[in-house]
Amino acid sequence: MDHQMDRRRFLAGTAATAGATAGAIVVLPFGSASATPEAMAAAIRKVVGDTPIREGRVSLDLPPLVENGSTVPLVVSVESPMTEADYIKAIHVFNEKNPQPGVFTARLGPRNGRAVVGTRIKLGDSQKIVAIAETSGGQFWSARADVIVTLAACLEEAT
Amino acid sequence: MANVLVNAPKTAKRGSVVEIKALILHPMETGFRPGPNGRIIPRNIIERFTATWNGTEIFDMEMSPAIAANPFVSFFAVASESGTVGLRWTGDEGFVVEERVAIAVE
Amino acid sequence: MKVLRLGIGLAIVFAASWALAQGMADKGATDKRRSGTQDMGEALQKMQDDDTANPGMLFVQLGGQLWGKAAGAAGKSCADCHGGAASMKGVAARYPAIPKDADAPVDLEGRINLCRTANQQAAGFPPESRELLALAAYVAHQSRGLPIAPPDDPKLVPFRLKGQDLWKVRQGQLNLSCAICHDDNAGRKLAGVTIPEAHPTGYPIYRLEWQTLGSLKRRLRNCLAGIRAEPYAYDATEYVMLDLFLMDRARGMMLESPGVRP
């Protein structure tokens, strides 16, 4: 029942935000605790401050259907020339249902040539993942992905 | 006996962008799971992964308990000059592992 | 004449290649067995296939280090008797087997522990210990890409038949046999996952659920617990008998150790 309530509140929150914003810059509804779990919103605010977060330039590659949440391959790629004048200085990844909202923060620079980071993460349940890239000019770009974690039928029992 | 697998090219053209992949043996115990006795198993994770090229830091990653066991990291680097890529993992319980690979730049 | 001979020659070549192609097609068509790898998503298949992405390779590396390390009162390493890893090629493809002068079969881990106790004069590794799994992975890795080839030792037959009986017997509170899931319903879904045909092609496997490497024995214990049956004791011959039956059932399939499974 709780789960359904969350979903309704989430939908209501997103609808309200969609109505309130228009144009190329989408202000993600991080301020609203009913749209995304508070912890993730707070963690993101801590990183970006009051700077608006734009959608785009970031691609977040995760399998949409995960066979086991304990090891999920994830790749974040950001469009950037990666020159001294214009580069991605950090990539942050957040989740909304694990015990802690932060997954990792990677710091990069022009010496990386490409703003691409890959790793494997744990997902306790089906949820939304957010990747945020910070440019050398102080802008924030983001991408989100919904991941469905299927539950295995025959799990090992604690013995 | 540190158990690390690193995949980086042995040679690269000057100015080209190369991919470096690294895998390390580590349980990444979250600190949220109860053990068989019902008590929480203490957190034991790698907190930080750092890469240097001839001593200059080029990449850094702060990890959380949400990184999967036996952490895998891949990133890119510009092959600026021949030398050594140094990789370093540090974490709870005094965990420190260092690994080096040589890349010849032509 | 020359043209005629050329014509005949070409006809023979075509006929031969057609026959060859037919033969291959027949083989592909008749062998419908599926390794668990084929039931996994693309991301996991890629993880298994890339040696620097497959976490099982960390254990292969550890096994390689242990292979050269002297142990026990004899002060000998595996390499002191067996030489390089190449000597282990094909070994995992033919285990379990009956050791010389013994009358019961042992699995690969059992063979490693026999070497520990008899030749190195060291204590055997505990079941599912990192060292035992690492050595098993190192040995099994040498057979990657080889077809499973159980030996024709007639002494193995009764054990294999017993394994087949165990496979078919209903047990546990759910009153299920291995065969009900993995023969009769393989390929269908149980909750969100595809029921595999249960061919032991990748052991020891890196199972994402476990977040570590594990043996066929551990997987069989999982299955038994899953059907609410009491798992056999760790040193029970039942596991070896089931292993024998499963390896025979997978005869000719390619070994993939270390496999990655969800």
Give a description of the structure.
The complex is a heterotrimer of chains A (159), B (106) and C (262). In chain A, the strands form two sheets. In chain A, strands 1, 3, 5, 6, 8 and 9 form a six-stranded mixed beta sheet that branches. In chain A, strands 2-4-7 form a three-stranded antiparallel beta sheet, with no helix packed on it. Chain A has helices spanning 2-20, 38-48, and strands at residues 53-55, 58-61, 65-66, 72-78, 88-95, 102-107, 115-121, 127-135, 140-149. The model of chain A is unreliable at 1-35 (pLDDT under 50). Chain A has two helices and nine strands. Chain B has strands at residues 4-7, 11-12, 17-24, 46-53, 56-63, 72-78, 83-91, 95-105. The radius of gyration of chain B is 16 Å and the shape is elongated. Chain C has eleven helices and five strands, in the order H-H-H-H-H-H-H-H-H-E-E-E-E-H-H-E. In chain C, a hairpin with a 4-residue loop joins strand 3 (205-207) and strand 4 (212-214). Chain B binds chain C through residues 1, 3-7, 21-25, 27-28, 68-70, 72, and chain C through 51-53, 55, 57-59, 61-62, 65, 211-212. Strand 7 of chain A pairs antiparallel with strand 6 of chain B, so a sheet runs across the interface.
